[in-house]
């Protein structure tokens, strides 16, 4: 055990204090709209032109200095009206150097709030009336049913459908794989009420984005998704 007054503890407390101050400053900058959050670039990210258009005069000069006199800001902005994915904008058929330069353009446009990311939010809802339902009463192991029943974030009318989905998945997948996806789905359910986007869920649960996407696909029957800006970061 390290004594409280040891040099090690002193440095640790000072480090934690500095870290807390940094987060406090960042929080204030976001709340005062003096900073924006730029989430990691991903080919499936959807971007749209800003809802509050800005005079482009000074930005044209700024972007020309950064990306060369041949860069056309209006042409770049037109790529995201209507909204478009990053993958479509980068175009994998183009040379890698061009794709890397376009990625830098995206970051610059986001920093200056000339475009914004449309994040995906989810709700857990009953299936639509014309949805293709899994076979009712499809065998679902009691251990999985117990986990579903214990979840307070899912409506009682939806839980039987989740059980049927798990039973249906067991026809083609191993029990461990279905249990893993169900466990993550139940953890995610606390954040699927339209207030937390996918990137936020990935961060809060400390899981891979691919795992979250897999769960969303597996339980799509009881999910409703929509896209909008992250109002805090935008």
TrEMBL record:
<keyword id="KW-0732">Signal</keyword>
<protein>
    <recommendedName>
        <fullName>GATOR complex protein NPRL3</fullName>
    </recommendedName>
</protein>
<dbReference type="GO" id="GO:0034198">
    <property type="term" value="P:cellular response to amino acid starvation"/>
</dbReference>
<dbReference type="GO" id="GO:1904262">
    <property type="term" value="P:negative regulation of TORC1 signaling"/>
</dbReference>
<dbReference type="GO" id="GO:1990130">
    <property type="term" value="C:GATOR1 complex"/>
</dbReference>
<feature type="domain" description="GATOR1 complex protein NPRL3 C-terminal HTH">
    <location>
        <begin position="181"/>
        <end position="222"/>
    </location>
</feature>
<dbReference type="GO" id="GO:0005764">
    <property type="term" value="C:lysosome"/>
</dbReference>
<dbReference type="GO" id="GO:0010508">
    <property type="term" value="P:positive regulation of autophagy"/>
</dbReference>
<keyword id="KW-0458">Lysosome</keyword>
<dbReference type="InterPro" id="IPR005365">
    <property type="entry name" value="Npr3"/>
</dbReference>
<comment type="similarity">
    <text>Belongs to the NPR3 family.</text>
</comment>
<dbReference type="GO" id="GO:0038202">
    <property type="term" value="P:TORC1 signaling"/>
</dbReference>
<dbReference type="Pfam" id="PF24064">
    <property type="entry name" value="HTH_NPRL3"/>
</dbReference>
<dbReference type="InterPro" id="IPR056603">
    <property type="entry name" value="HTH_NPRL3"/>
</dbReference>
<dbReference type="Pfam" id="PF03666">
    <property type="entry name" value="NPR3"/>
</dbReference>
<comment type="function">
    <text>As a component of the GATOR1 complex functions as an inhibitor of the amino acid-sensing branch of the TORC1 pathway.</text>
</comment>
């Amino acid at each position: 055990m390290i004594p409280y007054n040891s040099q090690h503890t002193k440095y640790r407390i000072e480090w934690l204090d500095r870290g807390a101050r940094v987060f406090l400053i960042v929080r204030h900058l976001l709340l005062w709209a003096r900073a924006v959050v730029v989430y990691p670039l991903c080919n499936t990210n959807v971007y749209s032109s800003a809802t509050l258009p800005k005079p482009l005069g000074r930005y044209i000069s700024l972007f020309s200095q950064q990306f060369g006199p041949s860069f056309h800001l209006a042409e770049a902005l037109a790529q995201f009206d209507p909204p478009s994915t990053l993958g479509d904008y980068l175009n994998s058929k183009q040379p890698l150097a061009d794709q890397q330069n376009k990625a830098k353009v995206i970051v610059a446009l986001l920093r200056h709030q000339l475009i914004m990311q449309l994040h995906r939010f989810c709700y857990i809802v009953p299936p639509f009336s014309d949805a293709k339902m899994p076979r009712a009463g499809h065998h679902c192991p009691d251990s999985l049913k117990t986990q579903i029943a214990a979840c307070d974030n899912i409506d009682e009318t939806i839980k039987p459908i989740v059980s049927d989905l798990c039973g249906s998945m067991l026809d083609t997948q191993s029990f461990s794989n279905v249990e893993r996806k169900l466990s993550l789905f139940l953890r995610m359910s606390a954040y699927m009420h339209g207030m937390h986007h996918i990137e936020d869920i990935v961060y809060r649960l400390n899981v891979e984005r691919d795992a979250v996407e897999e769960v969303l696909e597996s339980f799509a029957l009881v999910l409703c998704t929509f896209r909008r800006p992250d109002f805090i970061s935008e």
